[in-house]
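User: I'm putting together notes for a lab meeting next week and I want to include a structural view of one of the chains we've been expressing. I don't have a solved structure, so I'd like a prediction I can at least talk through. The sequence is below, exactly as it appears in our construct file.
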Amino acid sequence: MHDTAALSIAVIGAGPTAVALLESLIRSRGPGVSLDVTVFDPTPHPWCGHSFAPDRPEALTNTYTSDMSAPHWQPEHGGLWLKATGNAEFAGNKFAPRSIIGRYFKDSAQEKRDRRPRHTAQKPPLRTPRTAASR
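Assistant: Thanks for the context. Below is the predicted structure for the 135-residue chain, given as structure tokens.
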């Protein structure tokens, strides 16, 4: 018989910081630990935050895309995503439209949500965020 531990966490706000937190939580949990994360966010654009929402395509990032990565231990992650999604012109020491970076954070969160390691409970490790629009 295997003992399992359950870790239930509520996260308020589903912006880029929440994406990085989820990356770290999933990476750092031990074997046999199920992770149940509920994310609450008031915006209709979870994982983007206000700064990277898709409704502002003219706004550019204020830092190079080479300095943006959801998993801090993999600094090239953002650049690889830009290249894989047809946005290679923004990879490296460049500024990108915030809406594109918002899609990066959203894709990163979705990737974590869809991953179901064998040692977790039956439900996915991350629930769809509750937004103001879904209440």
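A couple of points you could mention at the meeting. Helices lie at 16-28, 77-84, 98-114. The radius of gyration is 16 Å.

User: Perfect, that's what I needed.
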